[in-house]
Structures are given as C-alpha cells and as structure tokens.
Amino acid sequence: MHLPASLLDRTGWRRALRPNGDLEIPADAAPISDHDVAGLRERRAFTERPPLGARLPVSYRLAPGWARAMAASAIGRWNRHRADRWAAFPGWPIDLSTDVLDDLRDATVSPQPPSGRAPVVLTHDIDSPEGLKNLVARFLPLEEAVGARSTSYIVPCAWPLDHSLIAELMARGHEVGVHGYDHGNLTPFAADRDRRRRLDAARPFTERYGVTGYRAPSLLRTRPLLRDLGARYLYDSSIPTAGGLFPVPNNGCATARPFFVEQIAELPLTLPRDGSLRFLGHSPGEIARMWIECADLVALARGVVVLLTHCERRFSGRAEMLDAYRRLLEHLSAGTNRFTFSRPAAVIDAVRERELLRASDATRATAS
Ligand SMILES: [Zn+2]
After folding, report:
1. What pLDDT, on the 0 to 100 scale, is given for residue 109?
2. Residue 59 is assigned to a structural domain of this protein
3. Higher pLDDT, 201 or 245
4. Which of 32, 152, 175, 249 is deepest in the core (most CB within 10 A)?
5. What distance in angstroms lies between residue 257's CA and the mean position of ligand 1's atoms?
6. Angle 355-349-154 (CA atoms, 0-180°, nearest 5)?
C-alpha cells in the first residue's frame, strides 16, 4: 500500500516502519481521521489537466478508431515495464491503500460494514453503433446465462441511436446510463455554461430511459464536472480505483468502496479495464486471470466489483476477449457465497444507508 509521507510523520507511524516494510502501529499513534481517508482517496482522483487528445484544435475522433488504438497500443507496450513511473500511485493493476487506511480509523466511528457477499456491477461503455449491436448480440447472452444484468453507458449526442436495440436490452432487464455528450473529451474542461449545456443535451435520453448514472468519456473528470453531475444524476462512475497509464499516468482513488465527493455518490471502477490491458499487450488469458484475482481481492476488502468493458471488436467484442469475459462471469457466479450480481443504484442506496447510520453513530459517540 502507499501512504503520504506527511501522514506517516503526523501519526508517528514512520518510527514504527521496519526495514522490510512491515508496520506495527504504535500504541501512542495519532488517530486517522475521515479527512486523512478522503485526502488519500482524492489525491489522484481527478484529471485536472486535459490529456493531449482533448487539447488538440480538431476532435481526436477524426482519427479512425484503429489508428487511435494503434497509437495507444504503441504507448502501452513501450510503457508496460515502467509501471513504477505511471503507476507510482495508485499502483497497477489495483491499489486499495485508501481502504486499508479507512479500516485503521478510530474504531468508534468506523464500524465495519456488514461482511457478506461483494456486489458485482457489470458495465459497458457504448461509443459506437457497432458497440451497441455487439452488446445486444454477444455480451447480454453471456450475462443472462449466469443470471446477471449489466449497465451500458451510451454516448447520447454523437451518432444516430438505434432505439429498438436500447428498448430490447431494457426489456431484457438491463439498463443504460449516459456516456458524456459526443465523446469529444471537452465537457470536463469546458467553461461552466458550455459544460452545463453539454450535460443538459442528454436530458431527452435520460428521461426516456430513466437514467440515474453517468460515466465520463475516457474517464476524464474534474471537480466542476462532478459538481454539475450531482444536480443531474444519482451517481457517477468515472473514477478508477487504479487508472494506470490512461487517461493520464498515476490516476485513481485507491479504493474499491463507493464514496461521496462533490455532493455526488461515486461508484469507482475497481477492476482494470479492457482497453488499458489490451494496450499494455496482455493476452485475453492473462486478462481473465487478472480480472479474477482483482475481483477476489475486492471481495476480501469489502468493496464492489465494478468492471468496464467496451463492446467494439477492437476492445472486447471479439471471440477471445468474450471468452475472457465469460471466464470471469463464471468465476463470479460460482462463488455465490462471495459475490452477488447487483446494479449501481442498489449499491449506492446501500452505501447511503450505511453512511447515515455511521453519521448517527458518530453523533451519539460525541454526545456520550
Ligand atoms: Zn467511451
């Protein structure tokens, strides 16, 4: 796990750190506060500077998808063995430092959440008509075979939507969310008025399909964006636990537990995502193994398993990657005492209830 130097100094933990990295917390250590936990969680949670693609004067989407995938793949392979630079914090492919710190808070105000089965939330980002077609034809049957339902975040204002396909997936018990505006990667960095105009353009879509959640294109997210989302959605799901190299090096919240930030509930993306893994050159077999190991770790940490896959052929919409996805689904459905398939809104409602309980416990502890 990774902790800020300032925290090690203030708590007195630094003195107790052994040469091999073991830490036995001294009896006279200063307590860990909510502020410490939120500070670590938010340390690298936002992408305040646009990456190159969002700064170009022309939309990066003008480059064909395969060219963008090839460029990202070259960057990924080049960097695969330099993880100490692009994943110094949070570590790749998963880093639960925030959760460790959360569990080390003063016990009177941090009751352990009920141990039980880890909720699993399956999500897709739908960037193109091809993605939507593949979703319905190839992904939904795999999910339905294990009794799961997924949430697909669809770009609302970039291409003509096939509403009959969306109606079909809804009728089969799956749901949809909003994936930005036109996937131009500009919304998070736009001036206030322009950002809100772009967000409001999704309203006909959200009303038609009862949308409750948002996923930012390329996972580019800023505090002003989240503040605006709070007025429009029940939750956001744009912050990875460990973002790795994309969209910017060293990004993520280092927690597998949903949290509140800028007045909105955040459902972190806890498993490494398909695009990053492919770009780093991992085989579908390796990807399945990494997903399974990370899901097991998230369950141990009492987090939520949240997976993002893209349905286009160049991501997960091809036979070998669909097979990796199927292997993960079978692992999750076989571990019925450890995992349970859920949905974003159900997970967020449970977290809200727990937070309310915690707040009333804290008040009682202060009063007594
Ligand atoms: Zn996307």
Report:
1. 45
2. no
3. 201
4. 152
5. 23
6. 130
